[in-house]
Write a structure and sequence with these properties.
alpha+beta, FAD/NAD(P)-binding domain
């Protein structure tokens, strides 16, 4: 007979590792199965840093979840006795009517969040790393900052294992077979039986959730690191993390010099280039570096002066760019966590709690109406 568990979690990246930790902390019998190793380079959960911010331009409905995420990140730090979340502030930069600035301002006003509006001259005085046009402003979210993704994932896995979860690495799940009483998980190494299954396999989600074929699209993402000409202005005390609405050029994100490699820059969704998740990421090319170098020269001339390296990772995009966290339609034994569309890591600590609630309780008190199958893919 297959081994029996309360919850089987397929994929132990950001969301899967957090779900394993939350479920195991509640005394559930948990098995987690990962095809690769923790925070591997084919995932979306490596690269030293991920933004976190409270004023959410995408939709104010995310803010209550962000508040809970902050609480859960601090609880994780307390258990690990390790810093995971560092507050530097986050600047949203652009014209006042740009989506990033106007959307963040609306979110801050709706939820009473602390923020500051800074014109070009005040930005130059306080944050000289950033070069602004005359009609641009900065909106400071003082509670924003960055999370260390590798440390977060390893921390959740450590807590999950400490609370009794059985964790398997280098084991690929080939199929799941749900029935009225639970789910059989079939891997290259064996078969397991669980009351509920959480599928959190990132770019490979459609392999086990056919409802997402042609809907959850893996794309290639590129980020680069730069050494500053002026090391003083690029330090976290003088430079915040940032989002920048660059008009027709798209939206960019970045971090101060928080490590030896310097200032990190990327464009959200890069070129939106679809990839085959079963193949290695295509290498960085001249078009990639020219895009990021041009932005660095124009917008961070003294803080991001000399590119020293660039690398690729993956986003998995849904058409709306909202998350999908729900039971598979018609099957309450299979929970899906997918397609965070390049802005999900900051929510990892609360999505893990939500997934645990769904698997163990059949529902959650946390707000998830944005993330349902029905909202993403309405019938008729």
């Amino acid at each position: 007979m297959p081994a029996e568990f309360d919850v089987a979690i397929i994929g132990l990246g950001a969301m899967g590792s957090a779900a394993a930790a939350f479920a195991a902390s509640r005394g559930a019998r948990v098995i987690g199965i990962e095809a690769h190793y923790p925070a591997h380079a084919l995932s979306s959960s490596h690269g030293d840093s991920r933004l976190i911010r409270l004023g959410y331009f995408e939709d104010p409905s995310y803010v209550p979840l962000l508040k809970r995420a902050y609480e859960n990140w601090r609880a994780l730090e307390a258990r690990l006795r390790e810093e995971i979340l560092t507050v530097t502030g986050v600047l949203q930069i652009g014209r006042p009517d740009s989506k990033i600035v106007s959307g963040t301002l609306a979110s801050c006003k709706m939820h009473g969040l602390t923020h500051e509006l800074l014109d070009k001259h005040e930005m130059a005085r306080r944050y000289p790393a950033f070069a602004l046009d005359d009609d641009e402003i900065g909106l400071l979210d003082p509670q924003g900052g960055y999370i260390r993704p590798e440390a977060a994932i390893m921390g959740f896995l450590k807590l999950a294992a400490g609370d009794g979860a059985e964790l398997h690495f280098g084991e690929r799940v080939e199929a799941i077979s749900p029935d009225a009483d639970g789910v059989t998980v079939i891997s290259a190494n064996g078969r397991y039986r669980a009351r509920k299954v959480i599928v959190a396999t990132g770019a490979w989600i459609a392999e086990l959730v056919p409802e997402l074929v042609s809907k959850a699209q893996p794309i290639r993402q590129v980020v680069a690191w730069y050494q500053p000409e002026d090391g003083f202005i690029a330090q976290p005390g003088r430079m915040t993390c940032f989002l920048r609405d660059d008009g027709e050029n798209g939206s960019f994100f970045g971090f101060p010099a928080i490590g030896a490699d310097g200032v990190k820059i990327g464009r959200h969704a890069h070129f939106r280039e679809p990839i085959d998740p079963t193949l290695p990421n295509p290498p960085v090319n001249d078009a990639d570096t020219e895009l990021l170098d041009t932005f660095a020269r124009k917008r961070l001339p003294k803080a991001a002066s000399h590119r020293i390296r660039a690398t690729t990772c993956r986003y998995t995009m849904l058409p709306s760019e909202d998350f999908l966290i729900d039971f598979v339609p018609g099957n309450r034994n299979v929970v899906v966590s997918s397609a965070c569309s390049g802005h999900g890591f900051k929510f990892t600590s609360v999505i893990g709690e939500i997934l645990s609630d769904l698997a163990l309780d059949g529902g959650t008190k946390l707000p998830t109406s944005l993330f349902s199958f029905e909202r993403h893919f309405p019938k008729g």
